[in-house]
Protein 1
Amino acid sequence: MVTSPSADLLTTALDVFPAEAAVLAADGEILYTNAQWRAFGLENGLVGADAATIGDNYLTVTIAADDASAQASADGLEAVLLGEEEQFILEYPCHSPTEQRWFLMTVQGFEQQGARFAVMGHLNITTRKLAELEVHEQNAYLEGLHGAVQELLQADSQEEAAERAILYLDRILGFPIVGLWLYDESREVLEPAATSERSDALLETIPTYEGGESLSWEVFTTKERRVIDDLTSVPERHNPETPLRSELVLPLGEYGVLNIAATEPNAFDERDVTLAEIWAGTVTQVLARLDREAQLREREREVLRERDRLEEFASLVSHDLRNPLSVATGRLELAQEDCESDHLEIAAEALTRMEQLIEDLLMLARQGEAVGSRDAIHLPSLVEGCWATVKTGDATLTVTTDRTVLADESRLKQVFENLFRNAIEHGGGDVRITVGDIVDKSGFFVADDGDGIPEADRETVFQAGYSSTTEGTGFGLKIVQDIVEAHGWEIRVTDSTEEGARFEITKVGFFDT
């Protein structure tokens, strides 16, 4: 049989309740407080009976408080005490001089013997709020980092990237005294590229660092960060009279250093160092990308200049040399009709060789042009077509590949035709040539059973003008290499299984892969 709880039982229940609790009358007077409430009062300076505050009017005190949270709690409490609301809940800060605290206030109204009462509780939620603030801070940091990285990636030069990197350290991470130095290779110095406004105001001049005279140069050369808690204890500091006391110096790879400083000692904790290192790594990657892009732009300018020179050369060869060559060939044919002479035959052979040289020179000059549209090309069909256009004599061709390659058909024909001519010129009229797949399926090869190419000559065979025979022009393999590389492929020469030469073309894009 369940009996009604005694007053002592209810009091005990409220005392073990894990929150500060009080019972209020309809007018806001505090009728009862539990042990948690009294303990909180004692912890915050109330003594004796005052710690309980029984008899005080909680509503009156709250209304009188000049605080937004207090006013909100007063409004909510009054609504419950008047019966307008049954429950009120509020989260509010209650900081002390030594710590940050947050509480959850709950007010629940009830009726007893025709009178209105309320039970009010205050639960300490500081742990949860601190965790929420930490998450919020981390999210804000990540959002700031994401935005800063996006801005950094929009930089068009290393100097602009340095300016944006400094802004992030100052405005987002709260490091007001920062600077970034970039290495000037021509002068062999670390040149200041960007500094914060606070740095400019604090330091009379921003130094340029030369070899062996500063912490920054040490970090740049060793590629190891330095965290200095007190600069006055570091004799190798650049400026003995510096107003700075703490410094964090971070390497930016081969591009420079990042300096973060403070006017008080021991200013940087482990978190500061971690965040700074993350940002320094990001800045280094952006500087590397900008360096590659600058090199690529310079390379493109060089290619354009070279192309202009080649076009001028091709025009000279095509018009200024071909016209007199045609005249000489025509006159020689007329002379051969009038008389017979071995000298005329030799002259005819020389003119034919000049014509071949001009053709090869023109083809070589045009290899700088970009590869055209790439089509799916059946290798066996293309190879057999190329074979038909070359003077093969008694040479034989075996095709063991059945692959389909993505390439510029016209220029790929030049590759096979030149490789076939090269094999016949060096291997003899009865040379046997094979076109097949490389074992790892990365490309194809053209091999012969001729004399092969000595290992010492395998790098020079692709140089313009190189030829081991008097019949060759020395441009055929150079043309092959240029076309292969224009496709993004690679070519190398090695021994064939028959001890001849084997040209391997790899990194090929196949249509049937």
Note: The chain has 13 helices and 18 strands.
Protein 2
Amino acid sequence: MRPEIIGVICLIIVVGVSVLSPKLRLATPILLVVIGLGISVIPGVPPVHVPSEWILAGVLPPLLYSSAINLPLVDFRKNLGSISVLSVLLVIVSAVVTGFLLFLMLPDLNLAGAIALGAVISPTDAVAATSIGKKLGLPPRLIAVLEGESLVNDASALVLLRTATAASAGTIALGGFGGVAADFAYSSVVAIGVGLVVGVLTVWVRSRLNDSVLTTAVSFVIPFLAYIPAEAIGASGVLSVVVAGLYTGHMGAKHFSASVRISERLNWRTIQFLLENGVFLLMGLELKDIVVDAVGRDPQSQNLNAWEAIALGIGAALVLFVIRFAFVGPLLAYQRARARRRDPSGPEATEATGWKGGLVLSWAGMRGVVTVAAAQSLPEDTAYRSQLILIAFTVSIVTLLLQGGTLPWLIRVLKLRGVDEAADHAEFATLVDELRTAGLQVLEAPELSLPTGEPVDESVVDRVRSDAELRSESAWERAHTAAVGGEAGESAPHEQYRVLRMEVLRAERAALLEARGRGEFASRILVRAQLMLDQEESRLLQSDGEGH
């Protein structure tokens, strides 16, 4: 079958599953893995194999960048301690412990090679966990920790994998932990520097382009501008991408126009959706060929057959869960104690730091994209290579199906909720008031004029002031409605305004389509009118809390 046809079919599957999975109450990644596995065993379907470097260098950078630009830097800094422990220390301990156990069980595998596999299966993939958590209302801080961990632990795991692989080849002595630590520190520090430089330069360039199409086009190459130089000088390209993404997402609010931010958000959400789900479908499609490799193509297969490798993968998944659980408990206890010392009555003292949050954080340790790609990057001369890849795939699939499949049930049973809708609306209204006060100060100037020096008519000033007041009143109206729970059949004035205005927009849109059909107006005029209606509809949805 031609590659382009396969691509179209895969795209249709990804979109169809994304529509279907909420109705089945299953995470999309889990369903895609199962469907991919089902397709792979159909007679006549050719084996699927994508080179690991395509994933590590072609898919992972834009995937991490899209996540990084959407993770608020304030949340990342606020939870830096927890994120660091889970994404660095936990990865190292998990890799060493699981690697040492594999070293004891597989006589032909040296310790460095075993730790390399431990590094492969150590990083978590928060795609399934965060998608489930956001839909079911997990505490925002818990979501932030999961997202931050998944961004940084990929870098930790890949640096450790490279170091262990070099040690296995004799380039670095694994017993010399000073050399290993120095290599790890160099990779991290230099990567942060490269990421910051790329972030600063690209934000500066894009802020001067004044065209949302051009700035978005430039953003498509930023992940690779950060990844390639870092990798070329022996640093972590993945960490460099994350740093560039965090910086860009944070500074975009200051240096980019509204149209650029809207365009970038939509485009990168689309890229993230396609890459994330496409890789999970690929996982299922590749599994049959991996099992075949493990059964008959590896010279060590007589010492470790496919079923034994799968059993080892299940055991490794269990060990990883136990290690994660042992880390999360003390971490949250410390976090809770520190928050109480700072503010005993504050929300940080309880939000996401109780035993329920700890259990969910422990259970959300699914493996995915990085584990799949990194496993296939193991050197060809690695003992048990095909079986090691099968072990890694088993860990990914078991954690996705078992932990990912039961995570929604666990959240519902624990009744863990972290978002108070009424409090959220009140906090939003308070912020809108603060913004309104700052904005109205412009209108209080003794000699108000436009930037060109042209005086402003008083009726225009009143209209602008009224718009600001209405926005604030609308926010407080929604806060009050959420606080009292609302009353069936009743709508507050501003809610009536939104509903009625949407009805007017629908009528205007129908008239626009009719005018387009008559062919009386130039196409550029029709496009401008379409954009005008779309922008107002987006504004109304945003004010209603439905915009994305």
Note: The two ends are 38 Å apart (CA to CA).
